[in-house]
Amino acid sequence: MTSLPPQPLSPLDGRYRTAVGPLGDYLSEAGLNRARVQVEVEWIIYLTEHSMFGSSPLTDEQQHALRALYVDFGESEIAWLAEKEAVTRHDVKAVEYLVRDRLESLDLGHIAELTHITCTSEDINNLSYALTVSSAVQSVWLPALRSVVSALRESAHEYRGDAMLSRTHGQPATPTTMGRELAVTAWRLERIAAQVDGTEYLGKFSGATGTFAAHLVADPDVDWTGVSREFVESLGLVWNPLTTQIESHDWQAELYSRISHANRVLHNLATDAWTYISLGYFRQIPQAGATGSSTMPHKINPIRFENAEANLELSSALLDSLAATLVTSRLQRDLTDSTTQRNIGVALGHSLLALDNLRRGLGEIDLDRAVLAADLDSNWEILGEAIQTVIRAEVVAGRSQISDPYALLKDLTRGKRIGAAELAEFVSGLDIGDAAKARLLALTPAGYVGLSDSLVDLLP
Length: 460
What we know:
With 460 residues, this protein is mainly alpha-helical. It has helices at 17-20, 24-27, 29-49, 60-71, 75-88, 91-105, 121-158, 178-197, 213-218, 224-234, 250-279, 303-325, 336-341, 344-362, 369-377, 384-396, 405-413, 420-428, 434-442, 452-455; strands at 163-168, 171-177, 202-203, 238-239, 282-284, 365-367.
């Protein structure tokens, strides 16, 4: 058997590339290297602006040319780095050599020694990961999440008055509306989205073991903690003053736990949507040309929600592993985080793919109001809660002498199907006030939804 041409091993880079491609701008190896070049270049510019180590400020044109190294980072730089790393066996050192090489070509060789000065690789890496993860979350993942939330919000308002039978423990229960149920999920996701949006992306810039030792020897008159803080904050990050060689990754653990939490709420959405489709509450809208089964022509399968469910599980498994392992580093440094962090894009990619499927899936279903109404009309016994509660209120008010209203309704309804006529006859014979009796006689399963409609307005 002949070998296939080179193929992507991960489905994210193959079958699902279109859905997750935007993450590659930030969380690929090339995206990481571009950020590394950015940090190295900005450090050189910072040093020259402050005339450190005897340097002089660069002109605006020189700064612009330097920043073009990462702004215009592309195929030639990717190839150059791959070739260099094959020799150095060190990814950050290859980036340093790239910057030095480009400084020579820009006639800036006289400041080449400022490249990577006082830095350990982790100074560059931690800032680069903070920049790339921040951009990926803010520019790609959060907008995708909010797109799903927006679809939920729209459907919540559309279906706010559509009563449906609840199923607590899978059994008929006090009705709700489909709109309110979707609003519950939207509310949960909005809250988590705000937490993710408020993430602090921390950075350290303090040398080999976080002590500024080389810095102080090179120039003992500089306020190195002040320089470190100013430089980190100039990149739009939050300064971490106390670290070992590595930034402690606590912000990453917090972020990945929050995204994993969002995944699990989305997973709940996927399984509930699947169940509502199975119950017939939602009709699936046929998509032109699509096939549901290779042998059963009638089928439309809820594949969007099934795909989302599986990818959310994969994403959370990876994110949970990242959150658990990244916070531990032996003594002042080990390299377990290096390999681990290369999977951040994979973890977010599976989540992004799920979000894409959920957004599409929500757009391919329609509420079947007739099924909802028929289900409610087949379960009048659910009004037992309302009746016993009214009786108890009447007893407290002195308008009834009924003892143990709960037991009375339990005997009437538990494990039974009770129709409208039977309930009406039962209510008519109750020892309660006329107003309460009239309210109960007018009540139907479809009308027993409390404040469901107005609760939708509490969505932000």
